[in-house]
Amino acid sequence: MDGGSLVSELLIERLNYCIYVILLLIGLWAMLAKRNLVKKLIGMSIFQTAIILFYVSIAVKKDATIPIYLAEHDPHGSHAQESADQNTTGNQESSQGPVALQPETVKGYANPLPHVLMLTAIVVGVATLGLALALTQRIYQGYGTIEEDELLDKLDRADERASVSPLIREKRNEQRREANQRARARAAGGLVAKGKQKAQPKRTSPRSSVDEEKPEPKK
Amino acid sequence: MKLFSLIPVLAIGALLLWAGQDFPKWGDLASPASKSSVSSHFIAKTGVDTEVPNMVTAVLADYRGFDTMFETVVVFIAGTAVIAILRGSSIGRPRRKDHEVEAEPDLIVTNTVRLIVPVIQIFAFYVLAHGHVSPGGGFQGGVLMGASFILIALSWDLEKAMARFPIERCLFVAAMGIVLYGGIGLLSMLLGGEFLDYAELEKIFPVSRGMARYYAILGVEIGVGFTVASIMFVLYANLASEGRLKEGL
């Protein structure tokens, strides 16, 4: 197949698929590249619309009407009533009520099945979109932003705070306590040089050093 | 980063366009979907089986009744999940006032809405009940009914709409819709058929098997309409007020 026929094949005979692919790509790109969660949801809806249009276009038949019986095929239509009146005894089929359509008349109606599938898909799409918006609102309440990169930053910082192991946290607390003590000792006694010297080797057990340090200046 | 994500998008697009050549042409009678025995069975036999002229309604509520029932359950679960996510989430949080202006509901808007809301609701019932012979049905009628309440909430405020359709009543009506749907299914099971085999209802109603399915489809659609209408309003009320259910948009 050369290039020209490919273009005519795609752009002229199957233009509808090109449109759905473009719509689908817009939605996909919005979901991938946009940072804003609401914009991502808009992309999801566009994606969904592309799929729905694709399914409905599958149902189309040339020269076919919508999948609702015309009056002459309608089981309760005026035509059915008339034929039942006319053939009170003669035609057995019509006196028994509605009859199945012939294959030629079946071709005159669009395919109902994709319409049904998409009908439910639209409603469920609305429900899931509502749920997604509720989650987005909750995220905004919790983090104050719906921009994805800012959200990730905040989550990382929160993780860092939460994920420090207890041992390291204990060590850090000790260091902080010691630093406080040293500062206090320096402030209390530039004159009491002895106490400062004693406090230094007891770095590992700050609590006991607190108990011992207090009586020392009295000596 | 944005250009980087363009690469997979374009690759998928090229693949889809390449596959698009093999798809049936627009309106092709010989496309696999149109040729399939399922679709031709639906078109040929719907009138005999259910006597419903609108094949979409018959397929939706009868042939694919199980699917539609759980579709309705999905809508119900989505509504309750939105309530669960947003309820109490904004307690103790100051309400942002910067985008608000203090204003009375507009006279022209409220009077117009006062006039058209009953019309919308009648039209919703029409779409629901006329779904057998024209485009329509439970989902469409339900959405219209929900939209009429949303319109009230938009033109006055949320309290005005909540006074007419409180959230507890919404959930009750939504649950009743599913109960109605499942109840019709269970009733046909108790009468000796399978779950959702409506034709068995002929044993208690003085109608033919086809007409039993016809009326059962109407009942099922009413159930769907209940659920969809109330859940649409629940979604709006919760999202518009961040779960406070007052002082909405």
Can you give keywords for this protein?
heterodimer; A: 219 residues; mainly alpha; Helix Hairpins; 2 domains; 73% helix; elongated; disordered C terminus; B: 249 residues; 10 helices; globular
Report on the structure:
The complex is a heterodimer of chains A (219) and B (249). By secondary structure, chain A is mainly α. Helix content of chain A is 73%, strand content 0%. In chain A, helix 1 (3-13) packs across helix 2 (15-33) and helix 2 packs antiparallel against helix 3 (37-58). The radius of gyration of chain A is 39 Å and the shape is elongated. The N and C termini of chain A lie far apart (104 Å). The model of chain A is unreliable at 87-95 and 201-219 (pLDDT under 50). With 249 residues, chain B is mostly helical. Chain B has a domain at 55-86 and 107-240. Chain B has ten helices and no strands. Chain B has helices at residues 2-20, 32-35, 37-49, 55-63, 65-86, 107-129, 138-155, 158-164, 167-190, 209-240. Chain B starts with a helix and ends in a 9-residue tail after the last helix. The chains are: A mainly alpha (219), B mainly alpha (249).
Which CATH top level class of the largest domain in chain A fits?
A: Mainly Alpha
Work out the radius of gyration of chain A.
39 Å
Largest sheet of chain B: none
The CATH topology of the largest domain in chain A turns out to be: Helix Hairpins
Total count of helical runs of at least 4 residues of chain B:
10
Give the H and E element order of chain A: HHHHHHHHHHHH
Helix content of chain A: over 70%
Q: How much strand content do the residues of chain B show?
A: under 5%
Uncertain residue segments of chain A: 87-95, 201-219
Query: What's the Cα radius of gyration of chain B?
Result: 23 Å
H/E element sequence of chain B: HHHHHHHHHH
Structural class of chain A: mainly alpha
The number of distinct β-strands of chain B equals 0
User: What is the approximate shape of chain B?
Assistant: globular
**Parts with pLDDT < 50 across at least 5 consecutive residues of chain B:** none
**Arithmetic mean pLDDT of chain B:** 87
- Measure the end-to-end span of chain A: 104 Å
The total tally of domains of chain A equals 2
Number of helices of chain A: 12
Broad shape of chain A:
elongated
Total strands of chain A: the figure is 0
